[in-house]
Design goal:
This protein is of the alpha+beta class and 197 residues long. The chain has a single domain, classed as Mago nashi protein, CATH 3.30.1560. 32% of the residues lie in helices and 28% in strands. Strands 1, 2, 3, 4, 5, 6, 7 and 8 form an 8-stranded mixed β-sheet that branches. Helix 2 packs antiparallel against helix 4. The radius of gyration is 35 Å and the shape is elongated.
């Protein structure tokens, strides 16, 4: 009697073990026979804050300096307001006014513009660069002024930069070269020259 009970328990245990091994084997085969999908690395594109606003204005001078205002918004829309500029016809400068031109820059160009402001460390610069005591030869009264402003993530700054500092190399030595470069880069990236022909 004892032998039969032992044999029956042994057989039940063995069958249970075999069924368990079979279930695990089926699960393993199913799990690893499926093609493994490798998720590609998701690189998040830099976000452009909705309040982003860039402005560049160049004023007239006693000569042929172009005078215009350039505004770029977060959606890439551009407003170019040419107040006055000069074209050369038969070696004679003729003043021309074109008024307002609406255009658009790409997302890449807008990110590039933001990057230029960051490289210039714009928010750490002074609000004004035009003091006479900073110019070795004083200041000329017939030079243009460049106004820039930058708004992003709730921060805003505007800078007034007068180009009438007299003295050799004074514009680049007395005023931050990164500001001068930034002013030039804004024009280059947007290509304002295309509207002054």
């Amino acid at each position: 009697m004892k032998m039969k009970t032992f044999s029956f328990r042994f057989i039940v245990g063995l069958v249970t073990f075999i069924i368990g091994v079979a279930c695990v084997s089926v699960w393993l085969v199913h799990r690893y026979s499926q093609p493994q999908t490798i998720k590609p690395e998701v690189v998040e594109e830099p976000k452009i804050p909705n309040d982003t606003l860039i402005m560049l204005e160049r004023t007239r001078c006693y000569g042929t300096c172009p005078s215009y205002t350039l505004t770029i918004s977060a959606d890439g829309s551009v407003v170019f307001n040419a107040k006055a500029y000069w074209v050369t016809e038969n070696k004679v400068h003729r003043q021309k006014e074109s008024g307002v031109i609406l255009s658009k820059v790409s997302r890449e160009q807008l990110l590039q513009l933001i990057s230029e402001f960051e490289k210039a460390n714009y928010f750490s610069l002074r609000d004004s660069y035009k003091e006479e005591n900073e110019c070795p030869g004083g200041t000329a009264t017939d030079s243009p002024t460049v106004y820039t402003s930058f708004q992003i993530n709730g921060r805003r700054k505007a800078i007034s930069h007068y180009y009438g500092c007299v003295g050799e190399g004074s514009v680049f030595s007395r005023y931050p070269p990164e500001l001068v470069k930034l002013e030039k880069r804004i024009d280059e990236i947007v290509n304002t020259e295309q509207w002054m022909k």
